[in-house]
Design a protein that fits this description.
two-stranded antiparallel ribbon; mainly alpha; 10 helices; 4 strands; 249 residues; two-stranded antiparallel sheet
Length: 249
């Protein structure tokens, strides 16, 4: 398996294992089985249970095609909708423990998933040969949709998990200080904590200062430096996030 180094805004590299081509193919096949099961169930319900097939008899070909498009639309939108709702995963990806992420380390947005979905039309051309070739020759096993959207598919195995590193022990009577932290995502907090711990380990005050300033800028916070140091501030932000999201280990 190859690794992908995601460079954060503090110029700290975090290494992830890229999902293998085999894992992505298996995930694709699982999702394919789900799609087939949906189509079989939908057409059986339409033609056999509800007996609505007669409606097509008096329609022209355009109207008939429109009905078929409506019935099969969920299959077409399957990857776009589920990746958006499941933060970069589909049921197939979830089973295989892989996920779509941005190369810059942040959670992919709906726009990114949309670009991947549009390019899927090209990637699946010739029974997926184009997408397969793209994954083989690209540095991070990226298909054309990944390259266009600036995303990659990573493995969540081997203890490399998006939410794993955000856990922080907090007491049951803990009182949070900054409710604004709910505006952050799990991936934001993972990056913050990873960078913070690395900076503490080598006593990199410059990174700590940049990280502190970045958090204050994003959350629009003003903190009195005489009452709370930068290190204390970042530590409180991490604990507050765990408190509000219920991610207490």
């Amino acid at each position: 398996m190859s690794q992908i180094a995601i460079n954060t805004s503090q110029n700290v590299n975090i290494n992830f294992i890229t999902a293998s081509i085999g894992e992505r193919i298996v995930a694709y096949l699982i999702d394919g089985l789900i799609k087939v099961a949906y189509l079989v169930a939908t057409f059986y319900l339409f033609f056999n249970i509800l007996n609505l097939g007669y409606l097509l008899d008096g329609m022209d070909s355009w109207s008939q095609n429109a009905i078929y498009i409506v019935l099969t639309l969920p299959v077409s939108l399957y990857p776009l909708v589920l990746e958006s709702l499941m933060e970069g995963q589909t049921p197939g990806k979830k089973v295989m423990k892989i996920r779509v992420v941005k190369i810059d380390g942040y959670q992919a947005s709906f726009g990114d998933y949309l670009i991947r979905w549009v390019f899927r039309l090209i990637d699946t051309t010739f029974v997926g040969i184009i997408g397969l070739i793209s994954m083989i020759v690209s540095k991070n096993n990226q298909r054309l949709g990944d390259i266009a959207s600036g995303t990659a598919v990573i493995s969540l195995k081997n203890n490399i998990n998006i939410s794993h590193t955000i856990l922080e022990n907090i007491n049951h009577d803990y009182i949070p200080t900054f409710p604004q932290v709910i505006g952050l995502s799990d991936n934001d907090m993972r990056i913050i904590k990873d960078n913070y711990l690395k900076a503490l380990k080598i006593d990199d005050r410059q990174v700590i200062t940049k990280l502190s300033d970045k958090i204050k800028s994003i959350l629009k916070l003003e903190v009195d430096p005489t009452r709370m140091t930068e290190r204390q501030f970042i530590g409180v932000v991490i604990k507050d996030y765990n408190y509000y999201t219920g991610k207490d280990s």
